[in-house]
Design brief:
- The complex is a heterodimer of chains A (about 70) and B (about 170).
- Chain A has one domain.
- Chain A has three helices and five strands; from the N terminus they run ααβββαββ.
- Chain A has helices at about 5, 20-25, 50-60; strands spanning about 25-30, 35-40, 40-45, 70, 70-74.
- The two termini of chain A are about 25 Å apart.
- With about 170 residues, chain B is of the alpha+beta class.
- Chain B folds into two domains: about 5-100, no CATH class; about 105-165, no CATH class.
- Helix content of chain B is about 50%, strand content about 15%.
- Chain B contains six helices and three strands, in the order αααααβββα.
- A three-stranded antiparallel sheet of chain B has the order 1-2-3, with helices on both faces.
- The radius of gyration of chain B is 19 Å and the shape is elongated.
- The termini of chain B are far apart.
- The chains are: A alpha+beta (about 70), B alpha+beta (about 170).
- At the A-B interface, helix 1, helix 2, strand 1 and helix 3 of A face helix 1, helix 5, strand 2, strand 3 and helix 6 of B.
Chain lengths: ~70, ~170
């Protein structure tokens, strides 16, 4: 399977800066008990808070409102 | 037994479908009834702790896949995660994380290996795809007590670098 099977609107020729920065979210999932930490644009989240965090991210539709047009996100 | 079941029920609904291992049902019910009581005597508290430990220790008896599902069930039901993570180890922790992500309708790929432009090998523990986001995840099963923030922050810095390499990795074969 290729990444582009999952995201068909993204082609291998799409300049990465137009989509990956918008959607790639680096996370460290930790076994420890702590609050959400943000370090260098990476979110550090305890496993118990992972689902809540994902739902929170997905609930902010404005973050993902870029329009796909002519091979680019705008 | 720490009660975080309510939170988990909301955020990982499909975990509710993970069947409880048949051989532990009786002990589990006794424990549940005890925990539901408003006040526990010292003797009952001790019993809860002992039974919790016994159920967690059963993780050691199962073969790997069953053990991971059992661990997920214990976590969902609010058992003390520190002890569970200690038994299942870092590899088990990664698998539990992957199962939780799958329960959130993500496409999950574990131990994603790739090479940088300079030919250096890199690995990301978990890549999880749930449109429109891609999660690049580094799992840290750390058991030590005390200050852990510094270590996690250092891990985050390294993971940022790995994720940047991943961004630049054009043709991705999963």
């Amino acid at each position: 399977m290729e990444l582009f099977d999952i995201f068909p609107e993204i082609s291998a020729y799409t300049p990465l800066k137009y989509w990956k920065k918008a959607f790639l979210i680096p996370l460290v999932v930790s076994s420890l008990d702590h609050d959400l930490i943000v370090e260098n644009d990476v979110l550090i989240v305890p496993l118990s808070g992972l689902g809540k965090l994902i739902n929170e991210i997905l609930s902010h539709e404005e973050l993902f409102s870029l329009k796909w047009e002519n091979g680019f996100y705008y | 037994m720490k009660n975080n079941g309510e939170i988990n029920n909301k955020i990982i609904p499909s975990i509710l479908n993970v069947p409880l291992p048949e051989d532990n049902k009786k002990e589990y019910e006794i424990l549940r009834k005890l925990v539901e009581k408003e006040e526990l005597s010292n003797e009952e508290e001790k019993k809860v702790e002992d039974m919790s430990n016994q159920l967690i220790n059963k993780l050691r008896e199962h073969e790997e896949q069953k053990s991971i599902l059992y661990a997920v069930h214990l976590i969902k039901n609010g058992f003390e995660t520190r002890k569970i993570f200690q038994i299942i180890g870092w590899k088990g922790f990664e698998k539990v994380t992957a199962i939780l992500l799958e329960s959130l309708d993500a496409n999950v790929f574990s131990n994603f290996r790739f090479k940088t432009i300079l030919g250096e090998k890199r690995e990301i523990d978990i890549l999880a795809f749930r449109r429109p986001i891609v999660l690049s995840i580094d799992c840290k099963n750390w058991l030590r007590k005390g200050s852990h923030t510094y270590g996690l922050r250092q891990a985050a810095k390294q993971h940022w670098n790995y994720s940047i390499f991943f961004q630049k990795f054009q043709h991705i074969h999963l």
